[in-house]
Design a protein that fits this description.
The complex is a heterodimer. By secondary structure, chain A is an all-alpha fold. Chain A is built from 16 helices and no strands. The chains are: A mainly alpha, B mainly alpha.
């Protein structure tokens, strides 16, 4: 069953092409119509934000649902020229990238132990991380804030990154364990005959073979960290240290009359997560195929 | 390889064999060395993750339980022990009970609104249509952008003088224009629409993954037996999608109970209760952090946690048990070495 995880990518693409032939009896115009409606609903609010950024405030006031006439670039250019945006963009990048790298590395090592070592506490270790799914950050946020404060890390990106790593571990471990468990034992035996230790096996075989799972979890962690709001809200209190979600909120309350600028700021801040996601979308579906089936 | 295959059975009798005759010295010390080496590797590999997890996830949750028994402003060591006083206040506070009701409403309506829609969309997107990968990316856009962006964008769009009401007026439907955010009669439905819009993409990803995990042979067999498309979906896809549906419902329930960002961003910390959209989490932040009553805030966190845990365990016990033996309750994978 967990084999599906490792072979997920190839199997998925094979199934995609074959399965649809069994369902081809569906009238395709209807399919396209429903798909178009669905996509419009999903995209319209996002387009509203992006296109709204190309309008001036007077256009927005006079005709709130209108099209830009003429198109105004100044909202975007002034955001791109502001040091604060790039400062907060950099903070978000540092926070998201280091969270992703550390969470995936730690989770990969722990998952390797859970999936491929036989020892007494193995089930308990897995249960510990699985239980973490029930400890969302909302519940722990107040004591977490106090803990970070006692460590002297308030208003410091590290105070956001460390808890983010810890809270990303449960999902990451649970997705990675089936991937690692599915690596055929023969490979490990062959590696050991060739004189590789278990750790050598980990670095030379496991890392490359689990790449699909690593990418899936990496993207999920990155997006989660990039979008994180509650934790930065508690930890960071100086706008120079804000990540973009806090920056968007601060900007929109400071410039509450300058709707066009708020829309431009907002649409620029969503680009990185969208880019990351659209590059790896196929990997995510493939990776979850294994994880959901356990 | 097998040092690791043979290792386990011997581990239990190891202490006995040390005390026993031990005829050959060298194999045993080799084994002991391998055993230590294995423990060392386990510690090195899993130690960092476990330490991080215990320090930043488990420890704070226990500290919340401790702080919740005190009236405490967050400075120094809590001394003003009030026992269950905070909890009495919470459950007697009409604002909290309202928030709890809203959470319950959101929980049920999320399942009702998103579940069927997600299955339908996944079936649709599993069709072989042109531009499918583009459609997939686009449908996940709302899930990928942050709550702050969703809140800011929808908030502006739904203002009384915003784009939606303007659009309705232009279409001659001005009578339907509402104060979508501030009107307590519609605000919670506004919230439900935004939540569904935001999170349906995730549900669709899971359903797609689930559908693609169904063995192809079943579809071939059904097609040979002359089953129609809808019969196939009804009798093969839906039942086999059961585990995915139940896991999704679990995640959705937990998410509904913890809902914070969207409400806090769109309705702010004070309007949420008058508009009828406050949740337990916004109540916690407002009464705890913003009011400076850290002891009380922690007590609210404990209440949220206990409610979530009770619902989660009940759900696991009665609904999830058969599917997730292996994913959520015990270690997976029978093919260990």
């Amino acid at each position: 069953m967990s084999q599906a995880a490792l072979t997920g990518r190839t199997a998925t693409s094979r199934r995609r092409s074959t399965k649809s032939s069994s369902g081809a009896s569906w009238g395709s115009p209807t399919t396209y119509l429903v798909a178009t409606v669905l996509i419009s609903v999903c995209i319209a609010p996002v387009l509203y934000i992006i296109i709204g950024g190309f309008r001036s405030n007077s256009q927005i006031t006079v005709n709130p649902s209108g099209w830009p006439d003429p198109w105004v670039l100044s909202n975007y250019t002034s955001v791109l020229a502001s040091g604060m945006f790039w400062q907060q963009f950099g903070n978000s990048m540092i926070s998201a990238l280091s969270t992703t790298a550390a969470a995936v590395a730690l989770a990969l090592m722990a998952s390797f132990v859970i999936a491929r070592y036989n020892f007494a506490g193995r089930n308990a270790m897995y249960a510990l991380f699985a239980a973490g799914l029930m400890f969302p950050m909302t519940v722990a946020i107040t004591p977490l804030y106090l803990l970070v404060k006692n460590l002297g890390l308030t208003n410091n990106l590290l105070g956001v990154i460390l808890p983010q790593i810890a809270f990303a571990l449960p999902t990451t471990v649970i997705i990675l364990v089936p991937f690692l468990a599915a690596i055929p034992k023969e490979l490990e035996e062959a590696a050991s005959i060739d004189g590789a230790s278990r750790l050598g096996f980990f670095f030379r075989m496991v890392l490359p073979l689990s790449l699909p799972g690593v990418i899936t979890t990496g993207i999920l962690v990155f997006i989660g960290a990039w979008n994180g709001y509650l934790l930065p809200l508690f930890i960071l209190n100086d706008s120079a240290n804000y990540t973009l979600p806090l920056g968007v909120q601060a900007f929109s309350s400071e410039h509450s009359v300058d709707t066009a600028a708020v829309l431009a700021f907002t649409s620029l801040s969503m680009i990185p997560a969208l880019v990351f996601f659209s590059i790896f979308e196929r990997r995510i579906v493939g990776g979850l195929t294994g994880a959901v089936k356990g | 390889m097998s040092d690791s295959v043979t290792e386990l059975p011997q581990r239990s009798s190891r202490s006995g064999s040390i005390r026993g005759a031990a005829p050959k010295a060298s194999p045993r010390s080799d084994r002991a060395r391998a055993d230590w080496r294995k423990r060392f590797e386990i510690a090195i590999l899993s130690g960092p993750a476990i330490v991080m997890f215990l320090a930043f996830v488990i420890f704070p949750v226990f500290m919340a339980a401790y702080y919740g028994f005190f009236r405490w402003k967050g400075f120094g060591v809590p001394t003003n022990f009030v026992g269950f006083g905070n909890y009495v206040v919470i459950f007697n506070d009409q604002n909290f009970r309202d928030a709890l009701t809203h959470n319950g409403f959101i929980l049920v309506m999320s399942l009702v609104m998103q579940g069927p829609a997600a299955v339908a969309f996944a079936l649709l997107l599993n069709q072989n249509i042109r531009g499918r990968s583009l459609i997939r990316v686009l449908i996940f856009v709302p899930y990928v952008i942050s709550e702050v962006i969703v809140g800011t964008g929808w908030g502006l769009m739904l203002q009384y003088t915003g784009a939606l009401n303007d659009l309705l007026t232009n279409m001659g439907l001005g009578a339907f224009a509402h104060d979508w955010i501030a009107d307590p009669n519609v605000a919670i439905w506004t919230l439900m629409v935004i939540i569904s819009w935001k999170y349906i993409g995730f549900a669709v990803i899971l359903m797609l993954a689930g559908i693609q995990g169904i063995p192809e042979e079943l579809y071939e067999a059904a097609a040979i037996d002359g089953a129609s498309y809808w019969q196939i979906q009804r009798w093969i896809t839906l039942p086999l999608l059961g585990p995915t549906l139940r896991v999704w419902a679990f995640l959705s329930i937990i998410g509904s109970l913890q809902l914070f960002d969207l409400v806090y961003i769109i309705w702010g910390q004070y309007v949420a209760s008058t508009a009828g959209t406050s949740t337990m989490a916004t109540y916690m932040v407002r009464e705890g952090r913003l009011a400076g009553n850290y002891g009380f805030g922690n007590a609210v966190a404990v209440v949220i946690f206990v409610i979530s845990l009770a619902i989660a365990l009940t759900y696991q016990r009665f609904v999830l048990r058969r599917d997730t033996a292996g994913a959520l309750t015990e270690a997976p994978g029978r093919k260990q070495n």
